[in-house]
Write a structure and sequence with these properties.
0% helix, 63% strand
Length: 147
């Protein structure tokens, strides 16, 4: 069975080719964005590069080796803003790391945005189970030069 050991949002991840160690650069504990003009359509797309890095652990082989997982981005009201499936290459018992790269975040309002990770519970992919949620507070910058 596969479990999610941890997941983080960061600017970049780097895998050392010699040691296979992973470096996480600038782990994001909050995101400060300019306050949008009041008449703009929602969501506003805030462009910046970041990754959601996920560590998976494959335990005892019970025949359930998912070949994909799903990541969804939810706004503070719980609305799904983006959702997509990613390939998951699990071969044997052990640890696996996946990095999903993004080039921006749709912003509807300030508050707690969530990155929800799910794996399929059936082989047809019809049912999904939440395995981890990573939160990212989004704060509007209220300085005069951004208004």
């Amino acid at each position: 069975m596969i479990t999610c050991a941890w997941a983080v949002v960061c600017s970049q991840s780097i895998r050392n080719q010699e040691t296979n160690n992973l470096s996480l650069i600038e782990i994001l504990d909050r995101l400060i964005v300019p306050h949008p003009p009041t008449l703009q359509e929602k969501p506003q797309f805030f462009s910046f590069n970041y990754e959601v890095v996920v560590s998976w652990e494959m335990g005892k082989d019970d025949g359930k080796k998912p070949d994909k997982f799903r990541v969804g981005i939810l706004d503070p009201s719980g609305e799904i803003l983006l959702q997509g499936e990613e390939e998951l290459e699990v071969r044997d018992i052990g640890k696996y790391v996946t990095a999903i790269q993004f080039n921006g975040l749709p912003i509807t309002e300030p508050g707690l945005y969530k990155f929800r990770l799910e794996v399929p519970t059936s082989t047809d992919g019809g049912e999904w189970e939440e395995v981890k949620v990573v939160s990212l507070p989004v704060i509007y910058n209220s300085s005069p030069e951004t208004e």
